[in-house]
Amino acid sequence: MINQHSNPPGTTFLCSLTVPKCGGDTLYLSAMEAFDRLSPIMQRFLEGLQALHVGINQYTIPSATNFVRRPPIDTVHPVVRRHPVTGRKALWVNPKYVTKILGLRKEESDNLLAFLFDHMQKGLDFHTRVKWEEDTVAVYDNRMVQHSALLDYPLEPRHLIRVTPQAERVSF
Predict the structure, then answer these.
(1) Cα three-residue angle 116-25-13, rounded to 5 degrees
(2) pLDDT tens digit string along 53-91?
(3) Of 35, 37, 101, 118, which sits with the fewest C-beta atoms within 10 Å of its C-beta?
(4) What is the domain partition of the chain in residue ranges?
(5) Beta partners for 50?
(6) What does the alpha-carbon distance between residue 87 and residue 81 come to, in Å, rounded to a whole number?
(7) Rounded distance, CA 25 to CA 128, Å?
């Protein structure tokens, strides 16, 4: 099922309840700054493109019970989105979920996505890192920020609670 109209996640509130003695940090990156660092020619090229966001990775949480979070939904959305309040543009592609850019041949799409993911990963000056302590709260705009938990804390509990309301309805 491909969804052309979606309500993306909005502002996210993430609070740590239990944290490991060492590790378990979360990395955040500004997708707005990632966009701003591209050349003007690349920015204009990307603004007209759409990507396929595949939801199967969000379908189940690996566990003994195979808990189903929600049905897998594939969504088409722009590669670059504009913040509804500030008007700032951001790259809206995530290596865990975006599998192709529509309208491009497979090798073009694969290479362009590899470039964008590499650009976002290596732009360390537009990343920040949260080292969790109990009761730490992080608040971020999920439409303009990407995050990734570091899985470097074997056999220790890490329990966070997240509240993320849906943002504005986006139609393309």
Answers:
(1) 85
(2) 887 766 555 555 566 666 778 889 899 999 988 999 999
(3) 118
(4) 27-130
(5) 78
(6) 9
(7) 10
